[in-house]
Amino acid sequence: MEFSSILFYVFGFCFVASSAMLVIARNTLKAAMLLILSFFSVASLWLLLEAEFLAITLILVYVGAVMVLFLFVIKMLNIDQSTIRAKFTTYLPLGIFVSMVVIAQMALVLSAGQFDLETVEEPARHIAGYSNITELASDLYTTYVYPFELAAVLLLIAIISAITLVHRKESRSKRQNISEQVSVQASDRVRLASISSTKTKKPK
Amino acid sequence: MMDYQFNTADLFFALPELFMIAAIALILLLDLFVSERFQNLTYYLTQSTLAITGYFAFNLIGESAVIFDGTYVLDTIGSYFKVFMMVFSIVALVYSRHYLRAHNLLKGEYFILSLLSVLGMMVMVSAHSMLTIYLGLEIMSLSLYTLIAIARDRAVAVEAALKYFVLGAIASGLLLYGMSMIYGITGSLDIGQIAAFATGANLNSEQVLILNFGLVFLVIGIAFKFGAVPFHMWVPDVYQGAPTSVTMFLSTVPKFAATAMLVRLLIDGLGGLQAYWADLFIILAILSIGLGSLVALMQTNIKRLLAYSTISHIGFILLGFITGVVEGYGAATFYVLAYVLMSLTAFGIIIALNKQGFEADQIVDFRGLSKHSPWFALLMLFVMLSMAGVPPFIGFYSKLFILQQVVSAGYIYLAVAAVVFAVISAYYYLQIIKTMYFDDAEKEITVTAPLDMRIILSINGALILVLGLMPSYWMELAISLF
Amino acid sequence: MIALSDYLILSAIVFCIGLAGIFINRTNIIMLLMCVELILAAVNTNFIAFSYYSSDVAGQIFVFFILTVAAAEVAIGLAILTLMYRNRGSIDVDVTNSLKG
User: Fold this and answer.
1) Among A79, A165, A170, B355, which residue is least crowded by beta carbons within 10 Å?
2) How confident is residue B95, by pLDDT bands cut at 50, 70 and 90?
3) B10 and chain C: CB distance < 8 Å anywhere?
4) In a domain, C78, yes or no
5) CA distance, residue C34 to nearest chain A CA (Å)
């Protein structure tokens, strides 16, 4: 067995195992950690497929930014575990059974002979000086310039949406308003009340 | 790619999209700096952007080109769809403004996000690569999720947005899985090259198997975007929960985009496999018509009722694509046009009855409408009769054309089933008419719509009748698009 | 030697695990979002494997865009989730059941 084949099986096993543990994890925080593990294993698989740039992007963007966002929300929102656990077990056996059947069917279709080594040979590895980023970039900024611009629009939507939905005016925060403090008049703060000293109400 | 050539003159063909992107950026900036007093500025700029984009698209009718290295296509169907989308968006925004004012939602972001979602739809309509279809779809969907949740303090709206978001993300995942299979077997993302592969004579059975495998996932993704049964779970909830103006927008303009996505992927791309996807569509169509007609009978909320009615209309649209002939595709496109016109009027009337803090979204709210506002009751009568398929309204001809094509394609049992369900569904449309004309009002109904909305709503409603008097012109136009 | 079909079957397994996860975690929105990420990881692996075995860079480009879209999607999804929490005090929603109220 070749070394790269061993790597494939090791990382493939990690990918499947961490994914499987993720979906049955009862603790959301644990699930997020397992998702990070499965991202690392799939990034390693992508390295085997010579997609270096995407593998690194997955780690940097996903583990570095998206998963941090997930963890942030998980910690910020206090998620009640009890209701989740109650529903969880009822669907588990059926879920496992259905997915086993579907996996078997998909595997049958995919191994039907169209994608085996006789039909699709493994390409020769790239030479030492090959740069995956150069190849991707030269396509991205020429052939795919229109989708690239559209991706910019998408990110704009993400910004607008996140601000529109979550941003609130600082009505709750207690900030100083300097100009208001400086221009304050005595009449704003002090009220002179004339209370007669003779009449007093007796407390019951 | 050393042989890459960028031709600046090509940019002319993408003028509608490019103009819209530029205008969105400009409006976004202006909206930040104008004071509260000029709040209408964003609205008027949005409307003029839509109008100018529509004008550019109109001028490009008849031209055809594939530019940006095959990621963008300009053709007749694309240009016509864009013009229709712009016109209906303008109408939808006129109605929306009245609603937003009454419910304190009038914000610049609403119009900007509407523009962005229309941009996404235009990208889908003009896509010539699976990549651009996907990006357009996501631009449209992400903006729509936010539009639904823009009523931040309304728990139902936020819940509806969340539901739509989660189910939409799952559907995108399935669609992408299908796309990856199609890419794997054909070796290209380009619709033209996929078509060349799929219509090739020397496909072996394994290649056909993989193509069909991918096709199933594509059909699921498309069915979800249309809201066809059994991928309709989001439709009633989102229609009911979203602010009515967003529901109106959601139920009208994106239907053109969904149709375009179907045309690009399944007809332009995998037209060679029509026999296979038609089988899947038969199931989707008949389930949609059936469920849409039956469940609507039990609804008391008019937005929810219209959601189920939409599902059954979607079934009819999908029936047109089963036939596999140009006339059938044309009939389906004509149906989309008719449906959007009717749906826009129906939601327009619901919005016209809105008041500060009150939504006329229960059927009982329409009691005695004929006495308080005979004109709007008459318009609603037009819509309901048209949706039920009564001649001479446009809804009758759209159903007729579809059924003619279905029968001539040999699916007589489908046509019979569709007619039976259409008759059942007539019951709840007539129920609304009865409520409006024969029940007494419990409370005062006032039509609060401003003049511009009344005028456009009246034209909109009248068109249901007027277009019904000359359907053949529009039908021929629809056929000529394919 | 690893065949293309091995990669495809691997990603099909993870794809199904993701779908099953959606099915069994119906009420926990954060788990649902993570399952969607799994599905996308499977799809991306598909694209990259096809791209590698056919020596065509288009598949990798597609993955680049899927990553971009998914990041934007997560940002919006979590924003809606936060709103939900503010309104209701919990984030349990059964997405397959109908809306009440």
Assistant:
1) A170
2) very high
3) no
4) yes
5) 7
State the fold for domain A1-79: Four Helix Bundle (Hemerythrin (Met), subunit A) (1.20.120)
Domain tally for chain C? 1
Give the dihedral sign, CA A47/A49/A55/A56.
positive
Beta strands in B346-446 (DSSP E): none
Which ranges of chain C have pLDDT less than 50? 100-101
Residues 4-33 of C with CB under 8 A from A: 4-10, 12-21, 23-28, 30-31, 33
Which residues in chain C have their CB less than 8 angstroms from residue A111's CB?
Answer: 5, 9
DSSP state of B266: I
The contacts of residue A156 (CB under 8 Å, 6+ apart) are B116
B80: its two tokens: 């016509």
pLDDT tens, position by position, B58-72? 999 998 999 888 899
Q: What are the pLDDT digits (tens) for B426-451?
A: 999 999 999 999 988 777 777 778 88
| Residue among B4, B138, B145 whose CB faces A143 most closely | B4
Instruction: Report pLDDT for C76.
Output: 95
Compute how many other C-beta atoms are within 10 angstroms of the C-beta atom of residue A162: 18
Q: Is pLDDT at B32 greater than 70 in this prediction?
A: yes
Residue C54 lies in a domain: yes
Angstrom distance (rounded) from CA B206 to CA B442: 66
Per-residue exposure over B262-297, b if at least 16 CB sit within 10 Å of its own CB, e if not: bbbbbbbbbbbbbebbbebbbebbbbbbbbbbebbe
Q: Which value, in Å, is the radius of gyration of the alpha carbons in chain A?
A: 30
pLDDT value, residue B1:
45
Q: Check the CA dihedral B190-B192-B197-B199 and report its sign.
A: positive
DSSP structure string for B207-264: HHHHHHHHHHHHHHHHHHHHT-TTS-THHHHHHHHS-HHHHHHHHHHHHHHHHHHHII
The pair of structure tokens assigned to A90 is: 């009822």
Residue B52 sits at the vertex; the CA angle it makes with B51 and B55, to the nearest 5 degrees, is 90
Tens of pLDDT, residue by residue over A37-58, are 999 999 999 999 999 999 999 9
Question: Nearest-CA residue of chain A relative to B113?
Answer: A157
Mean pLDDT for B217-232 is 92
Q: What ranges do the domains of chain A cover?
A: 1-79, 81-125, 131-164
CB atoms C67 and A57 under 8 Å: yes
> Is pLDDT above 70 for B278?
yes
The residue ranges of every structural domain in chain B are: 8-480
Residue B130 in contact with residue B179, Cβ under 8 Å? Answer: yes
Distance between CA B452 and CA B450 in Å, rounded? 6
Contacts of B172 in chain C (CB under 8 A): 73
The verdict on residue C82 lying in a domain is yes
Chain centroid to Cα B428, Å, comes to 23
How many other C-beta atoms can be found within 10 angstroms of the C-beta atom of residue B230? 13
**Count of CB atoms situated within 10 Å of the CB of B219:** 26
Residues of chain B contacting residue A150, judged by C-beta atoms under 8 Å apart? 123, 132, 135-136, 139
C78 in contact with A, Cβ within 8 Å: yes
C24 has a chain B CB within 8 A of its CB: no
Neighbours of chain B (3+ CB pairs under 8 A): A, C
